[in-house]
Amino acid sequence: MIVLGVDPGLADTGWGVVEFDGQHYRPVSFGTVKTSSSESQQKRIYTIAEDLGTIAMKYSADVVSMEDIFFTKNITSAIPVAKVIGAAIYKFSTMSLPVHLYSPLDVKMAVTGMGRAEKIQVQEMVKVLLHLKEIPRPDHAADALADCICYCTHNALKVTIRS
């Protein structure tokens, strides 16, 4: 199974692709979709959704795992991220790709076993679980790979049974 992980953001949206056979992870690729603040918000959101669709097609993704909106005290930054999530879900829906949303706590728990893990702990475990030589950069790409691992962790039994 090919999992596309997405860490949504307006300036930088992280993406990662992981192949999972029910027991083993194989990192395929990762990166970010960057947009410029000089463009309209509409154009930026459109670009992110289109680029994510292209990435999903390029790597023949079977499923998408995306980090859901995390609302802190700054609603101003949360709203554009929510718009990116909505546009991405719409794009993947037009491609008949199932999308699974996970809270940051769920992702941390799946990757490290601790829901309150620090960002560096999550990144280090992504490196270990995917047998990478170093922590993936930029941070948004590492977060997207963590989203992949989260989906696989939650669905490992289902994958094993189907295989």
Structural features, described:
This protein has 163 residues and is α/β, with parallel strands linked by helices. The chain has one domain: Nucleotidyltransferase, domain 5, CATH 3.30.420.10. It has five helices and five strands. Strands 3-2-1-4-5 form a five-stranded mixed β-sheet. Helix 2 links the parallel strand 4 and strand 5. Helix 1 crosses helix 2 and helix 4 crosses helix 5.
Q: Which range does the strand content fall in?
A: 15-25%
The CATH superfamily turns out to be: Ribonuclease H-like superfamily/Ribonuclease H
The Rg value, from CA coordinates, equals 15 Å
* CATH level-two architecture: 2-Layer Sandwich
Our count of domains comes out at: 1
- Order of helix and strand elements from N to C terminus: EEEHEHEHHH
The strands making up the biggest β-sheet line up spatially as: 3-2-1-4-5
Entry keywords:
alpha/beta, disordered C terminus, 50% helix, 5 helices, Nucleotidyltransferase, domain 5, 163 residues, 5-stranded mixed sheet, 21% strand, single chain
